[in-house]
Specification:
- With 305 residues, the chain is α/β, with parallel strands linked by helices.
- It has one domain: TIM Barrel, CATH 3.20.20.
- 46% of the residues lie in helices and 17% in strands.
- β4 and β5 form a beta hairpin.
- α2 packs across α3, α3 packs across α13 and α6 packs parallel to α7.
- The protein is globular and about 60 Å long.
Length: 305
């Protein structure tokens, strides 16, 4: 699956993933009104609004961006209707040819981890039939429980040609409370990176592994070290733009082949119309603003590669 992602990145010359993390505050008033007129101010109404919002953005960016990353919590907050909207978002993105990275940060042990892996990447047995529940191409995974939590995902990746991105060094300010603690002379995030490289060697897909990792754009010096530890690992990079990461920070995350990383932007793209830079588009043309934000991000990142 990583090879397919690389092909899309290369074809579109865009190492970019669009984070589909909709909040109702991002949704233009005309979309909210239509959804609430039909469903009322209900969970169903909220879910209908974010699905319509997502479709507009996807229609505007599918030909210039290789991948999207819906954050499942933004859908879970609306209960069952929200989860239906998540599934319909995934399906719509795949119909448009986009690679879908489910940002779920799952991770447990034994049968629980296996169930998470099946839900997001694999197929579940129901009687004599097999069903794909959510059907993402990749999913983010928390490694805190160790190999017991990761192995079921690796098994499904091998069976289904899917992939995962394992949290190594996250972009949030308090990540260092645990991730930076030194053990046996190395910070924990380096030890996790070594383990990711080991897991990745079991699941290669060409030059790179289907087992990727997450390293925040807000810690470029750490990114340089981790790139060397994991040369064949694709890096999913959150924290660009709204969280303070810049294109200049990102150069070290890529390999000399210009590959090796894909950079996420969420509200900087999906709520672009709210920024002064893109205010000329207005709320009615929010999707066109998102498209321009992707083009600008693409130019910015490629300028340092």
């Amino acid at each position: 699956m990583i090879e397919k992602l690389i092909q899309e990145i290369t074809k579109k010359n865009a190492p970019i993933v669009v984070g589909l993390d909709p909040m109702l505050g991002y949704v233009p008033e005309h979309i909210l009104k239509e959804a609430f007129d039909k469903h009322g101010e209900t969970l169903e109404g909220a879910a209908a609004a974010i699905l319509e919002f997502n479709k507009g953005i996807v229609d505007a960016i599918y030909d210039i961006a290789p991948a999207v990353k819906p954050q499942i919590a933004m859908y879970e907050q609306f209960g069952i209707p929200g989860m239906v909207a998540f599934k319909e978002t995934v399906d719509y993105c795949k119909e448009k040819g986009l690679i879908v990275i489910g940002d779920a940060k799952r991770g447990d042990i034994g049968s629980t981890s296996a169930a998470y892996a099946v839900a997001h990447l694999g197929k579940v047995q129901v009687g004599s039939k097999l069903y794909s529940a959510f059907g993402e191409d990749f999913v983010t995974v928390n490694p805190y429980l160790g190999s017991d939590g990761i192995s079921p995902f690796i098994d499904v990746c091998k069976e289904q040609d899917k992939g995962i991105f394992v949290l190594v060094k996250t972009s949030n300010p308090s990540s260092g409370e645990f991730q930076d603690k030194v053990f046996e002379g190395k910070p924990l995030y380096e030890l996790v990176a070594q383990k990711v490289a080991e897991w990745g060697s079991e699941c290669m897909d060409g030059t790179y592994s289907n087992i990727g990792c997450v390293i925040g754009a807000t810690y470029p010096e750490m990114g340089k070290v981790l790139r060397k530890i994991m040369p064949n690992t694709y890096i999913l990079v959150p924290g660009y733009g709204a969280q303070g990461g810049t294109a200049k920070d990102l150069a070290a995350y890529f390999n000399e082949d210009g590959l090796g990383a894909i950079v996420n932007s969420s509200r900087g793209i999906i709520a672009a119309y709210k920024q002064e830079k893109y205010s000329k588009y207005g709320s009615k043309n929010y999707a066109e603003a998102s498209r321009q934000a992707v083009l600008d991000m693409k130019e910015d990142i490629n300028s340092v590669l």
